């Protein structure tokens, strides 16, 4: 029986196949299982032997990265960027340091931008961005004091609510003081997208529109090819368009050149292209601008030195000027200058075997880069990349490859103007110049004055015969006149104020040159800004003759208003600001320039009103004192002569217990900005204060301009650290044009 039972059991075990895995009880108790059904452990414990099998997961659907998903991802990233910009704006408004400014939402940000890869030229974005070097300056140290003073004297003032205009002017002035040390946004192009583009995913304007605008540019005078890109030809753009539309083969440098030219062509032809409406031209220009931004974003500064790459960098620099990004312009211009030297464009010996056309293109390209380099050197206060002693190139390129302006003298004058601008910084405003004596700088300034005068006489003699009766010839003459006086203003700033002159801070020549520069701009605005036939020239003038020119004339006139209380110059400043009001839409740069100039005009206007009110109140007090003396004396003494009314004084309230703003509220901020000789604030900078008595006792015998001549007996010399601080103040004001000015 035992054998039979044993045999039965053995037969049963042999007949049951082993399980694939241990039963649930054995796995729970973590003991060895013989994987029978039932297993020995379950039989011994009279437990139910059950084995659970793994359930197979259903196959997952394969996710395809399509354009729809990319658009969703881009939408999420754009929304996050908007949240980040909003937080940064709030932080900047609250005065939190260490935050970078957000990019203004202007025309460039309204573009429907492609996704692009990270830009190699700009590198990774870092939160620890420092301001670019601008030399030694005393402005930064006083900015914190001005901010604290504002919180104490303005925000807590009970008259703040009753003086809305004064409060607004002071708030804007405070924002300017606070923003002096914010780093410029050199990552502008990096923010426009995230992935690389190719001709296959670029949206191009219709081929018919491109052909029409190229035909117009060839048959008529093109401002783009004349001034902006003299090294580019219509045939070159046609070849690139053929590659883009037919073969879909276009390098990134070619895309920059092609879209940069087409963007300007469509912008010029928006009123004169018969086949297409103005709105269509604006749409095509907008489309080319979007593609240009995308191509610049993909620009790699670590690339081979070739003629095509230098052209692409030059077009990028020109576009950076238009959107008012001088720091970005400096980066691409310096790289282009280095490539020009690598390729030998600055040496005539390297072009001996080139054809006349190719050599002329190289020369024009070099002089374009040279002009940008020298102009930025003076504008930003940095040493230029290209040195004059290293150039063997003639300053008049061959006229055969310059079909739109065949006068070699014009190109020579522009390059010569750039050379003198470079010398102005080197001899008058560089650290080596400030280390020299004031007498030596004045001698060098007189030499530069003579050279500028000789050059301007040549410029006035240019006939521009090729232009015929074109309004463009008149525009060039006015632009040359404005640039000439702007440069002369910087030179005359070195001269000390003359005795019994029109200004206690600047020489008479400096003030007159600044006035002439602004008057030249006003003449150009009256001629071209609102003329429907010639308004196409106005945007180019704004971007190249105004935004590229030194900011000195405006600031000199502003300072002169503060120190001399000139109503005539206040009117001049007002007209200058109004000339930009209707042109704010042209570009981001023109809008920012209007904002900054508008703030300073409002400050000057309100300051003069308050100053006149204080003087009137002083006169009333003097009259009251004299009336009291008359009651005590049998014969009254004659009244003191009154100050001529230069501005309309504000009404003085009768309630003497009220708190009202005074000129000192403004002078502390003007002092923090480096505005020289601001009354009552001069003690902080070592300047002699101008008392009310000296204001009232000004002698107007020598006054021929309608303004009172301040007393110059206690005027300090303008050399040394004072001139250096003033020069750096000018650069600090210019740096505002690269920042978010939405709060001004």
Automatic annotation (TrEMBL):
GO MF, one annotated term: DNA binding
Q: Name one GO biological process term.
A: DNA-templated transcription
SMART domains on file: Fungal_trans (SM00906), GAL4 (SM00066)
Q: Where is the composition biased (Low complexity)?
A: 621-634, 692-709
The yes or no answer to whether the keyword Cytoplasm is present is no
Is Metal-binding one of the keywords?
yes
- Region Disordered: start-end pairs: 621-659, 692-714
What range(s) does the Zn(2)-C6 fungal-type domain occupy? 22-51
Recorded hits in Pfam families, A to Z, give: Fungal_trans, Zn_clus
Q: Alphabetically list the UniProt keywords.
A: Metal-binding, Nucleus
Q: What is this protein called?
A: Zn(2)-C6 fungal-type domain-containing protein
């Amino acid at each position: 029986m035992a054998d039979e039972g044993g045999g039965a059991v053995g037969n049963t075990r042999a007949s049951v196949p082993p399980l694939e895995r241990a039963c649930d009880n054995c796995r729970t108790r973590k003991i060895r299982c013989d994987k029978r059904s039932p297993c020995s452990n379950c039989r011994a414990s009279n437990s139910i032997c059950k084995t659970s099998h793994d359930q197979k997961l259903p196959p997952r659907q394969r996710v395809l990265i399509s354009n729809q998903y990319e658009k969703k991802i881009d939408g999420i990233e754009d929304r996050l960027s908007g949240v980040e910009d909003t937080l940064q704006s709030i932080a900047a408004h609250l005065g939190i340091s260490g935050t970078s400014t957000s990019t203004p939402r202007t025309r460039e940000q309204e573009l429907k931008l492609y996704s692009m890869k990270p830009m190699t030229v700009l590198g990774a974005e870092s939160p620890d961005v420092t301001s670019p070097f601008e030399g030694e300056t005393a402005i930064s140290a006083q900015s914190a004091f001005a901010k604290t003073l504002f919180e104490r004297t303005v925000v807590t003032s009970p008259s703040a609510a009753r003086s809305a205009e004064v409060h607004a002017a002071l708030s804007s002035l405070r924002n300017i003081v606070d923003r002096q040390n914010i780093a410029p946004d050199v990552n502008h192009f990096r923010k426009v997208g995230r992935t690389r583009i190719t001709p296959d995913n670029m949206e191009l304007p219709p081929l018919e529109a491109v052909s029409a605008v190229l035909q117009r540019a060839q048959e008529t005078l093109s401002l783009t090819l004349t001034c902006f890109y003299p090294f580019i030809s219509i045939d070159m753009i046609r070849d690139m368009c053929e590659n883009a539309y037919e073969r879909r083969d276009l390098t990134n440098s070619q895309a920059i050149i092609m879209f940069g030219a087409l963007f300007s062509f469509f912008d010029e032809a928006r009123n004169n292209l018969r086949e297409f409406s103005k709105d269509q031209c604006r749409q095509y220009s907008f489309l080319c601008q979007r593609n240009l931004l995308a191509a610049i974003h993909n620009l790699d500064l670590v690339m081979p030195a070739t003629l095509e790459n230098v052209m692409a960098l030059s077009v990028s620099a020109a576009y950076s000027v238009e959107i008012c990004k001088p720091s970005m312009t400096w980066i691409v211009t310096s790289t282009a200058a280095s490539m020009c030297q690598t390729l030998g464009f600055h040496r005539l010996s390297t072009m001996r075997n080139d054809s006349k056309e190719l050599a002329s293109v190289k020369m024009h390209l070099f002089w374009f880069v040279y002009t940008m380099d020298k102009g930025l050197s003076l504008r930003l206060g940095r040493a230029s990349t290209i040195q004059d002693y290293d150039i063997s190139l003639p300053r008049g390129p061959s006229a055969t490859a310059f079909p739109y302006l065949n006068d070699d003298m014009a190109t020579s004058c522009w390059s010569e103007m750039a050379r003198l601008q470079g010398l102005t910084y080197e001899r008058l405003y560089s650290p080596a110049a400030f280390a020299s004596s004031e007498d030596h700088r004045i001698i060098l300034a007189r030499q530069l004055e003579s050279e500028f005068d000789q050059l301007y006489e040549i410029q006035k003699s240019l006939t521009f015969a090729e232009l015929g009766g074109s309004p463009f010839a008149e525009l060039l003459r006015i632009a040359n006149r404005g640039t000439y006086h702007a440069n002369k203003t910087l030179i005359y700033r070195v001269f000390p104020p003359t005795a019994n002159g029109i200004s206690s801070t600047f020489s008479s020549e400096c003030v007159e040159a600044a006035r002439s520069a602004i008057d030249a701009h006003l003449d150009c605005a009256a001629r071209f800004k609102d003329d429907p036939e010639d308004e196409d020239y106005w945007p180019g003038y704004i971007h190249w003759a105004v935004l590229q020119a030194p900011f000195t004339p405006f600031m000199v006139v502003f300072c002169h208003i503060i120190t001399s209380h000139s109503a005539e110059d206040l009117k001049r400043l007002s007209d200058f600001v109004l000339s930009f009001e209707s042109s704010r839409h042209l570009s981001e740069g023109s809008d920012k320039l209007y904002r900054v100039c508008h703030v300073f005009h409002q400050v000057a206007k309100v300051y003069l009103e308050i100053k006149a009110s204080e003087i009137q109140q002083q006169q009333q007090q003097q009259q009251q004192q004299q009336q009291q003396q008359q009651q005590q004396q049998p014969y009254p003494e004659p009244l003191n002569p009154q100050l001529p009314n230069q501005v309309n004084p504000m009404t003085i309230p009768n309630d003497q217990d009220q708190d009202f703003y005074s000129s000192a509220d403004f002078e502390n901020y003007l002092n923090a900005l480096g505005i020289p000789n601001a009354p009552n604030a001069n003690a902080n900078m070592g300047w002699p204060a101008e008392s009310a008595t000296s204001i009232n006792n000004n002698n107007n015998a020598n006054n021929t301009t309608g303004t009172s001549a301040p007393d110059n007996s206690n005027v300090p010399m303008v050399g040394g650290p004072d001139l250096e601080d003033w020069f750096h103040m000018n650069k600090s004001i210019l740096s505002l044009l690269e920042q978010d000015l939405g709060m001004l």
